[in-house]
């Protein structure tokens, strides 16, 4: 993002290393635009704007994978960037991580006994973890703590809930994204909006295959999730209905959204 006209159309590749939370920015060459490209920012850890500084007792906060989602705005090397897309490894990583954390937060009868939870507690576990995660897990810790609970298990669950609530993982939770749209599908105008969107998607599908590029579906079907899903969440939704990478079975997507 830039106020300078000469920067319009410039695209960059942001590389993030999970092992040490370092970022690198590279600009691919664009010969027709006269852009030679090259390394824009050397690999380094980048302080999180507005986060704790070096004088904070806990130390400074840096960009982590958990805030790097499609649509995120970054401040790197004194310039503003907006993330437009990611490769499939990134989406796979976030979605796998969501699945791993959800397994940790699904109590079994044995776990319920260890955490001193009754049947009603188990039934309401998901709702409580969502509320608690929003405030860093403090309420979750309090709700789960009991005379027979394990402090290690409590801390691990609180940590998992807090991680699930981070921007990138929250947007990569496939079940949560589908549920959002199914709630919207219960509205009186949902069927009409879906029919309109389906008509546009079929018009864009010149081959009649029932499959379109992900970018086209995100663009043409925006009316289905406007105000409900952001860019990353829309991609998460599309990936559920991809028979192969970046190819969306849009007929099944629309039908599933309308299934209550």
Write the layout of secondary structure elements.
Blueprint: E1 13-17, E2 22-27, E3 38-44, E4 73-76, E5 79-82, H1 88-104, H2 109-114, H3 119-123, H4 125-133, H5 138-144, H6 151-164, H7 167-170, H8 174-185, H9 190-204, E6 211-213, H10 214-220, H11 222-225, H12 231-240, E7 247-249, H13 250-258
Helix pairs in contact: 1-6, 4-5, 4-6, 5-6, 9-13, 10-12
Question: What do you see in this structure?
Answer:
This protein is globular. Helix 4 packs antiparallel against helix 5 and helix 5 runs antiparallel to helix 6 (151-164). Helices cover 46% and strands 12% of the residues. Residues 109-148 have low confidence and may be disordered. It has 260 residues and is of the alpha+beta class.
Q: Total strand count, please? A: 7
Euclidean distance between termini CA atoms:
40 Å
- Rg, alpha carbons: 22 Å
> Share of helix among residues?
40-55%
Structural class: alpha+beta
Strand content: 5-15%
Reading the helices and strands in chain order gives EEEEEHHHHHHHHHEHHHEH
């Amino acid at each position: 993002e830039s106020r300078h006209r000469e920067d319009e159309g410039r695209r960059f590749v942001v590389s993030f290393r999970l092992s040490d939370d370092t970022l690198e920015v590279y600009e691919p060459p664009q010969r027709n635009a006269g852009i030679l490209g090259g390394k824009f920012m050397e690999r380094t850890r980048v302080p999180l704007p507005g986060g704790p500084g070096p004088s904070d007792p806990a130390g400074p906060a840096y960009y982590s994978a958990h805030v790097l989602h499609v649509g995120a705005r970054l401040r790197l090397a004194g310039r503003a960037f907006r993330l437009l897309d990611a490769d499939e490894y990134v989406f796979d990583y976030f979605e796998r991580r969501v699945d791993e954390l959800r397994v940790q937060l699904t109590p079994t009868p044995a776990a319920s006994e260890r955490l001193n939870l009754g049947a009603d507690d188990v039934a309401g576990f998901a709702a409580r973890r969502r509320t608690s995660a929003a405030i860093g897990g403090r309420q979750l810790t309090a709700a789960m703590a009991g005379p027979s609970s394990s402090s290690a298990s409590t801390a691990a669950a609180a940590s998992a809930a807090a991680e699930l609530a981070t921007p990138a993982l929250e947007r990569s939770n496939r079940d949560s994204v589908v549920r959002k749209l199914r709630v919207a599908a219960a509205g009186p105008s949902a069927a009409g909006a879906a029919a309109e969107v389906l008509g546009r998607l079929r018009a864009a599908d010149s081959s009649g295959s029932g499959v379109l590029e992900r970018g086209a579906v995100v663009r043409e079907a925006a009316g289905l999730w406007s105000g409900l899903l952001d860019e990353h969440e829309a991609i998460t939704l599309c990936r559920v209905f991809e028979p192969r990478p970046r190819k969306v079975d849009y007929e099944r997507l629309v039908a599933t959204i309308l299934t209550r």
